[in-house]
Amino acid sequence: MLRCDFCGVETDFVVRVAIDKDYDRLTVRHEKRYACLACSEKKEKERQERMKAAAQKTR
Ligand SMILES: [Zn+2]
After folding, report:
1. What are the CA-CA distances from residue 32 to residues 22, 52, 58, 59 (Å)?
2. Does pLDDT of 49 surpass 90?
3. How far is the CA of 37 from the centre of ligand 1 (A)?
4. Is the pTM of this model over 0.85?
5. Residue 57 C-beta-side C-alpha neighbours within 13 Å
6. Residue 1: pLDDT above 90?
């Protein structure tokens, strides 16, 4: 069993999530984390939202 680093659920299925270096100062030392399917989808959505926001800033 592995544990999701985000919600703490124990699961056999985890996804390795690479955290952007500027994502969160608290996670700087842990660039790779394990996420359950729900959390990995959430993180992916957040990543896309941030990319959208960044793209709008440079316009
Ligand atoms: Zn989770």
Report:
1. 13, 23, 28, 31
2. yes
3. 7
4. no
5. 6
6. no
